[in-house]
Design brief:
Number of domains: 1
Distance between the termini: 36 Å
Number of strands: 10
Helix content: 10-25%
Length: about 160
């Protein structure tokens, strides 16, 4: 059985990509800004993790550092592991989109776990996913606070601090 080989984190077809793991992006979409973290690059796709942020102003680096990500947690209270949810969009689309800008960068832990992923084609689909998913994650995060023993592996909003060094 052949495995899909991970390519260079900095290149696609020999061409350097614009962004790196840990880069924080503002995405102008629907007249407002999304805050999006690049959790990694896999082959010709960026793994994008959304934050709880959709506002009239561009996010700042502090919004990323102190924000909440789409993700989950699993394990036990003594050994919690955090994972991020990702939407994969082609590097070419992201790199060439004039409505996407670098805000700053954070040093992520070496191995960021994934709780799920899917491929999207553009920023409009990313916004659609955000608007659909956010209320669910807010509710499940509230339930996790009320009933912590029952609230592991689910759709949560997790503090960014759990995946940065």
């Amino acid at each position: 059985m052949k495995k899909i080989k991970d390519t260079s984190p900095d290149k696609v077809h020999g061409k350097l990509v614009k962004y790196r793991k840990g880069d924080c992006l503002s995405v102008l979409c629907g007249g407002k800004y999304l805050a999006v973290l690049i959790s990694r690059k896999f082959n010709k796709y960026y793994d994008l993790t959304l934050l709880e942020y959709y506002k009239d102003t561009k996010p700042g680096l502090d919004d990323f550092e102190n924000g909440k990500l789409f993700g989950t947690r699993f394990g036990s209270w003594k050994n919690l592991t955090y994972a991020v949810n990702v939407r994969m969009i082609s590097c070419k689309y992201i790199d060439e989109n004039i409505n996407i800008e670098l805000v700053g960068s954070m040093m992520l832990i070496p191995t960021v776990e994934l709780d799920g992923y899917s491929y999207l084609n553009n920023a409009d689909e990313l916004l659609e996913y955000y608007l659909e998913e956010l209320p669910i994650r807010i509710e499940k995060s509230k339930n996790a606070e009320k009933f912590p023993d029952l609230a592991f592996v689910s759709k949560h909003l997790i503090d960014t601090k759990h995946i940065i060094e």
